[in-house]
TrEMBL record:
One of its GO terms (biological process) is tyrosyl-tRNA aminoacylation. The gene is tyrS. Belongs to the class-I aminoacyl-tRNA synthetase family. TyrS type 4 subfamily. Keywords: Aminoacyl-tRNA synthetase, ATP-binding, Cytoplasm, Ligase, Nucleotide-binding, Protein biosynthesis. Transmembrane segments: none annotated. Signal peptide: none annotated. HAMAP family: Tyr_tRNA_synth_type4 (MF_02009). L-tyrosine binds at residues 40, 173, 177, 180, 195. This is Tyrosine--tRNA ligase. Coiled coil: none annotated. It comes from Thermofilum adornatum. Catalyzes the attachment of tyrosine to tRNA(Tyr) in a two-step reaction: tyrosine is first activated by ATP to form Tyr-AMP and then transferred to the acceptor end of tRNA(Tyr). It holds the Pfam family tRNA-synt_1b.
Amino acid sequence: MLSLDPETIISAALREPTEELLTPDNLRKLIETGVPLNHYIGFEISGFVHLGTGLISMQKVADLQSVGVKTRIFLADYHSWINKKLGGDLSVIRRVAGGYFKEALRVSLKIAGGDPDKTEFILGSELYEKLGVDYFTNVLRVSMETTLSRIRRSVTILGRSESEALSFAQLLYVPMQVADIFSMNVNIPQGGMDQRKAHVIAIEVGEKVFGYKPVALHHKLLPGLQMTKEDWEKLSAAKSNAEEFRDLLANIKMSKSKPETAIFIHDSEEEIKRKIRSAFCPPGETEFNPVLELARLIIFRDRREPLEIVNKKTGEKKTFENYSQLEEAYKRKEVHPLDLKETVAEELAKLLKPARKTFLEGPGRSFLEELRELKITR
Ligand SMILES: Nc1ncnc2c1ncn2[C@@H]1O[C@H](COP(=O)(O)OP(=O)(O)OP(=O)(O)O)[C@@H](O)[C@H]1O
Ligand SMILES: N[C@@H](Cc1ccc(O)cc1)C(=O)O
């Protein structure tokens, strides 16, 4: 039930970590028609949930919940199967979806300030079984409106490159993802910026084929901790070319298939410290600095009290009321990268405590062990 005015809903949708909303005007129009707002975000089932897939994605779910939007989390078991995740075994994928993944996303949503009991979890195969031939019809409808070359260009959303040898099923992946949106009457599909190609197709075919235009919400991609100087230089040089910039960022994002780039939500305090200590964090550089991004997007997001950073060499303490103060001081080199890293690691460890409790002590323990035993990260 939406009792709030449109501008409040739009500003919740636009709040960071949102990178783009396609478009705020269309969201306003949608609200004005009075239709219920139905959001979804989908996940492939593989590997461990990290700060990007867990916290950043769930921050937006929490924002939308706060203004009464119906939120859904789609566990894309068929897509993971097509993409040969977890050894390509559909029964394992299904088990991990309802076990580890559901638990990891629930605790992430809680940490991000949302309510896991107020979000619906849907397993892809269950939706397809329920809809039967209607789902197949939706996949065909999307496919008939999309060219093969467009589909080939959009396989980057699977984490695959256009030039890679693909199975025919992998070409079906994108039309299926687009069909998922309409099969659940979703009008606010969410994903990281690397998912925009599927959503742009949905926006283009939606009106003609399904009678409405969804409003896509794309959140920022958290950069990988192990960005190199070369990556950083390429990113800086590509700033004015939106498409090149997006592709570069998608390649250096925090990713579960590159564990050293990622902090997993269940990582121990020592592990978090170790990973952050070895992260890329050039002194005085505030742009595309992965450690500062963690401070900005995660630590300062809902923080009410100031952040204290201690200079380990001199013992001097500095406090920051908000992110801009920290950014300015870092730019002036008044904060040493090592001190910043230490504080960021400590704060993250505090925030992630409920996830450690779930997976190391609580009900999630056996789920984590099962996934570890599978020893498959992709
Ligand atoms: N670093 C990130 N920051 C924010 N969101 C992310 C990040 N990585 C993935 N996501 C988002 O999480 C959802 C699931 O992504 P996905 O399963 O591809 O994650 P991943 O860890 O990068 O996996 P893989 O390593 O297999 O590519 C997508 O909406 C995606 O955009
Ligand atoms: N493509 C998404 C997974 C996904 C699959 C199907 C969907 O309907 C939505 C999302 C990813 O890379 O993780």
